[in-house]
Amino acid sequence: MASKVREIKDVDVLIIGSGPVGSAFARELVDGGRNVLMIDAGPQLSKVPGWHLKNSYVYQRDFNSFTGLIASHLHDASVSTSNKPTITLDPAAFHVDLTAPEHTGFVRNNQNPKQNPFMNIDGEAEAFCVGGMAVHWTCSIPRENPDIERSGLLSDSEWEALYTKAEGYLCLHSDVFDDSIRHIVVKNTILSQFPDRGVRNLPLAVQANPDDPALVKWSGTDVILGDKLIDLLKNDDQKNFQLLTEHICYELGQSEDGKSIHLARCRDLTKNQKVVIYAKQFVVCAGAVRTPQLLHASGIRPKALGHYLCEQPKSFCQVVLKEQTVKDVGDTSFIGLTPAMKKAIQDHKDANPKDPVPIPNDDKAPQVNIPFSKAYPFHCQIHRDAFKYGKVPPNVDDRLIVDLRWFGYMDPAFSNRVEFESDIKDRFGMPQPTFYFQLSDTDAKRSHEMIDDMTKAAVALGGFLPGSEPQFMPIGSSLHLTVKHHACI
Questions:
Q1: Considering just the CA atoms, what is the radius of gyration of the chain in Å?
Q2: 3 state DSSP class of 289
Q3: Dist. CA 153–CA 132, nearest whole Å
């Protein structure tokens, strides 16, 4: 049974959302002397808040198992209604025709009857947990192209200062995989195919593991928060920084004159208890969908709210390294192998004489990048990592697999938008988002050129893994959605 309303007062800043952006705000504000309360609708999944789950030994050794974990943590934002019957159902079992007038509009399983499937962002999903997407992201952090992608609202010097600080918070490194045999093989092969494209190591939010060179430490929001804030959370008596999990904010309370926010109406999901939080300032960092959703639910609805939706079209494939490449690695004649790598190959062959693959089992994955450019406007990742797709069959040796992911860009358009339904609620009782999204002809042409470019890189590396030939992934599966939601009150 729900209990009476709980009130929380004397908060300098309330941060709604514990992902990378919210965590960066928390760090800056606490360092500046503010007391900060952060809330998140999801649970804490690890002992250290926001710890990257891929740091677990088993997931670093087996990407396939992490693929399933990612899929289990992602929740579709808008699902088009399907009334297709289950034709194999036992005739004696309960069944109903949902197309009948008396049932029209009935919604189950977070389906959205107002979502046009041809205008949906099918791959768009949300993560509800402390740390948000950062507990399972790839940690790839290339900078935006300054001439095409980057906003002109800030000067070059301002961008440089902000990028430098952000990369410091995320622990940017590009050399952690330089001791990987597969990394050298893939990088040098792509360099030969594209000698004038600036092929480089993929910029990553990652650190070497000082205790085991075969492992790394991926950056989650725990790294962004830093040791100081993580230590504060261990002390229940302090008020400088606090975190409430499974608390959702469903409305921001405006002052009578509408010029400021003075409270947040929230709900403790574990107790079904209303919680009112009073603060001097409010920061909403709930993602590209949840942030405008909360503003909309609070009656804050500037004209551009939810408009100018942008997402990166993405092409994907997986290849098995060429036989000749593997042979060249086996006899250590592949160009670029260091003496240490050659020794590791020979040691592996001596210890595992029946293993047909000469690459050590603990060899780290490749992490290669072809930067975005005006001539080739795509971010290209050639690596091996876990997404919610791309699981390799158990009879395929993962050491031979390389993933290729090309991320394009699209021109912002006011018509690409997310709206919020007043008569349909999502799983949290908030206005259901509905997407209206289409690529322009120019975007489509650019995407076609992108998959052609990816295919050339893939063929240079090897043969396509059956079932993972070059393909476009559902729009939204990049999970890089951006939208207008700024509101100053």
A1: 24
A2: helix
A3: 27
Q: Which of 165, 204, 166, 211 is nearest to 183 (CA)?
A: 204
If residue 152 lies in a helix (H) or strand (E), which one and from where to where? none
Q: Is there a contact between 115 and 434 (Cβ–Cβ < 8 Å)?
A: yes
Q: Concatenate the DSSP letters of all residues of 45-81 into one string.
A: -SSSTT--GGGSHHHHH-HHHHHHHHHHHEEES-EE-
Q: How far apart are CA 9 and CA 398, in angstroms?
A: 53
On whether the CB atoms of residues 59 and 112 are closer than 8 A, the answer is: no
With contact defined as beta carbons under 8 Å apart, do 180 and 215 qualify?
no
Q: Is 440 left (phi over 0), alpha (psi -120 to 50) or beta?
A: beta
E-only strand ranges, 17-145:
36-39, 74-76, 79-80, 111-112, 125-127
Joined tokens for residue 237:
């008596």
- pLDDT one-digit tens code per residue, 47-85: 999 999 999 999 998 888 888 888 888 889 998 887 777
Strand partners, 207: 217
Q: What is the DSSP string of 297-359?
A: HTT---TTTTBS-B---EEEEEEEEPHHHHHHHHTT-STT--HHHHHHHHHHHHH-TT-S--S
Amino acid identity for residue 347 in this structure: D
C-alpha 108/C-alpha 115 separation (Å) is 14
**What residues are paired with 319 via a beta bridge?**
402, 464
β-partners of residue 419 are 434
Separation of alpha carbons 328 and 21, rounded Å? 45
Question: 57-65 — which CB contacts under 8 Å span 24+ positions?
Answer: 57/215, 59/386, 60/215, 60/216, 61/362, 62/398, 63/365, 63/384, 63/385, 63/386, 63/392, 63/398, 64/386, 64/391, 64/392, 64/394, 64/398
d(CA 351, CA 66): 28
User: 3-class DSSP state for residue 206?
Assistant: strand
State which amino acid sits at residue 270: T
- Per residue in 181-239, pLDDT (tens digit) is 999 999 999 999 999 999 999 999 999 999 999 999 999 999 999 999 999 999 988 88
Residue 18 confidence class, pLDDT cut points 50, 70, 90: very high
Distance CA 401, CA 318 (A): 7
Answer whether 283's CB lies under 8 Å from 391's CB. Answer: no
Burial call 228-253: b when 16+ CB within 10 Å, e when fewer: ebbebbeeeeeebbbbbbbbbbbebb
